[in-house]
UniProtKB/TrEMBL annotation:
NCBIfam families: morpho_MmpB. InterPro entries: MmpB-like. This is Uncharacterized protein. Keywords: Membrane, Transmembrane, Transmembrane helix. It comes from the Bacteria. It holds the Pfam family MmpB. The chain crosses the membrane at residues 20-41.
């Protein structure tokens, strides 16, 4: 931790990574649901 860091504010890279992981997780969950439906219909 640097003294110049703002309070409780993650760096932009970390926030961008968290946003990307959130979208990736959402996409993976959606892909799983679609895969389950496709497997179920066979």
């Amino acid at each position: 931790m640097l003294w110049s860091d703002p309070e409780n504010e993650p760096p932009k890279e970390l926030r961008d990574m968290q946003e990307m992981l959130r979208r990736l997780g959402l996409f993976m969950a959606l892909a799983m649901v679609v895969a389950m439906i496709v497997i179920g219909l066979r």
